[in-house]
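About this split. The held-out portion is used to measure sequence recovery: a designer receives only the structure tokens and must propose an amino acid at every position. Recovery is the fraction of positions where the proposal matches the reference. Here is one held-out target exactly as it appears in the evaluation file.
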């Protein structure tokens, strides 16, 4: 598949929430058109601990989750409602018993029932767990103990064959290097793990996912680098946290855009996975619809870009919350309401011709709150995208270009007095820039250096990536 070597948009100003160059339609009833002119809401609710003990118990839990989400949406008059199911481990281990009927088929039937009865556009997205373990092997035939690569692909087949509208995953290729890099502040290790190895793994994985989706006439949505970049973001934290510098975290986010976009290069259509805060960068390059999360993921983690994340989204989501009772009813309904009203605000702004005003308010409210929010502000995300497509033919060089551009943007904002950095953040930024600029231009030379430097890491096996 060809790599992206040009931008989908003529300039950053063209980007706005609810509109993508390549909209995608799916679901039940009036159907959801991601990127077709309106923002849609996505609600994710996790079953309570213990619900996975038996398939029948899990089925009962998902029935309650699905119905209470849709009941709240209909009660409040929301025109669209997508339900995302981030599979628990047991579903990936035994999808026939724990996922096929308890989740996939049942949720599809309920979504169709509500669409038929109330005229609401509904859809179900299934995010398959990446159970693969690097020590055991990431590709077919390597893991002779748990057979996780085969189980992951088999789970996509079962989801596609039994009613899923959209297929997604938070894949973990390259994490053995990313973890090492995050723990040690080693940007070279992170770049090798995510920008290069992770992209190779995405190519292997998503070529199969797209093939399964096309055979079953379902949507191959996209991926995210949640396991790596969100780990860095979470550890970097806020103003009271000092475990790793937020400047380091921001640059890892830019790197991961080069990995996330591989799903679309392999034929996935979007909407992509919401956990990827790199969404504005990849949307700027590809023009495909993106789902984002921000302020409504406070149940899972603090967020320094809770408003800004909505600036150019096509779908808006919460982070997965546990199913339990609240004063107003079930947590599934409360989160559907919170997400739904944010979506309503965006769509009303579009109807009033004020969508770009609201976009800019979202962006301005968090633009200088952190280095990471600064680099994914849509104008800067576009600049990072431009740097990437100039080196689009190389996984390594485009990820490196993204990292350097992000660092330069942060440096410029800090020098202009717009972005305040601590001494630790400045020192880290200086070191990262020095390390990045010292890297070779040639991809083969970079890979050779990294194999020599990191080849003995306990969890790293080059065969996982065809090396």
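Reference sequence for scoring:
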């Amino acid at each position: 598949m060809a790599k992206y070597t040009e931008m989908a948009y003529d300039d950053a100003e063209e980007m706005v929430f609810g509109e993508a160059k390549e909209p995608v339609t799916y679901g039940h009833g009036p159907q959801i058109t991601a990127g077709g002119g309106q923002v849609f809401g996505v609600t994710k609710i996790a079953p309570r601990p213990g619900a996975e003990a038996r398939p029948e118990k899990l089925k009962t839990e998902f029935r309650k989750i699905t119905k209470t989400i849709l009941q709240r949406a209909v009660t409040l008059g929301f025109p669209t409602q997508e339900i995302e199911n981030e599979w628990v481990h047991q579903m990936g281990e035994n999808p026939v018993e724990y996922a096929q009927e308890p989740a996939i088929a049942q949720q599809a039937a309920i979504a169709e029932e509500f669409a038929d009865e109330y005229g609401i556009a509904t859809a179900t997205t299934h995010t398959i767990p990446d159970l693969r373990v690097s020590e055991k092997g990431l590709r077919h035939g390597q893991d002779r103990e748990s057979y996780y690569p085969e189980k992951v692909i088999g789970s996509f087949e079962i989801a596609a064959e039994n009613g899923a509208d959209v297929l997604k995953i938070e894949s973990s290729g390259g994490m053995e290097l990313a973890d090492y890099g995050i723990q040690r502040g080693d940007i070279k290790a992170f770049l090798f793990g995510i920008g290069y190895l992770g992209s190779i793994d995405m190519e292997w994985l998503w070529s199969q996912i797209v093939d399964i989706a096309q055979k079953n006439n379902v949507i191959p949505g996209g991926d995210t680098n949640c396991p790596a970049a969100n780990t860095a973001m979470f550890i970097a934290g806020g103003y009271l946290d000092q475990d790793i510098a937020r400047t380091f975290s921001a640059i890892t986010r830019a790197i991961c855009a080069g990995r996330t976009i591989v799903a679309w290069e392999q034929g996935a259509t979007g909407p992509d996975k919401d956990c990827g805060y790199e969404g504005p960068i990849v949307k700027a390059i590809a023009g495909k619809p993106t789902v984002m999360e921000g302020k409504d993921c406070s149940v899972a983690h603090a967020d320094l870009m809770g408003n800004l994340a909505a600036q150019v989204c096509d779908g808006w989501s919460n982070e997965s919350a546990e199913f339990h009772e609240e004063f107003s009813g079930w947590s599934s309904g409360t989160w559907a309401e919170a997400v739904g009203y944010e979506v309503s605000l965006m769509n009303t702004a579009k109807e009033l011709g004020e969508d770009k005003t609201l976009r800019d308010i979202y962006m301005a409210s968090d633009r200088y709150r952190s280095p990471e929010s600064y680099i994914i502000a849509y104008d800067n995300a576009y600049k990072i995208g431009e740097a990437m497509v100039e080196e689009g033919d190389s996984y390594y060089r485009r990820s490196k270009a993204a990292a350097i551009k992000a660092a330069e943007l942060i440096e410029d904002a800090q020098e202009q007095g717009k972005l305040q950095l601590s001494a630790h953040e400045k020192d880290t930024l200086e070191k990262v820039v020095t390390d990045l600029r010292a890297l070779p231009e040639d991809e083969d030379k970079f890979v050779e250096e990294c194999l020599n430097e990191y080849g003995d890491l306990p969890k790293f096996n080059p065969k996982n990536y065809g090396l």
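Annotator remark: The radius of gyration is 21 Å.
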